[in-house]
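pasting for ref
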Amino acid sequence: MEFTDNKAIYLQIVEYVCERILLGKWKIDEKVPSVREMAVDLEVNPNTVMRTYELLQNKNIINNKRGIGFFLAEDAVANVRNYRKSQFMNDELPAFFRNLYLLNIGFDELQTRYNTFVKETFNP
């Protein structure tokens, strides 16, 4: 994973974990990598991963089973969608709409591009 400078690393790891969950790569009630495993895999400090896991616990996406490890919560997918949707609507969508307006991009063109993207990315 390559990190960018425009967002805290732990938040980028949250996005990474959320994407894995939404893509079905991590299953409900399945054990997730330990803090140390994730830190080694991503080449980050374990404290950074711990901060990530604390945020994910607060959002009810993962649970800590004491002495066993972290597991995906039963409603992890719904909670990820709610969390990410809220972030997108509040943080990214206003800038996106601004660019649509400034660049005079209509919803028809946007719909066509979106359909192409989905087809090529998720249904190759």
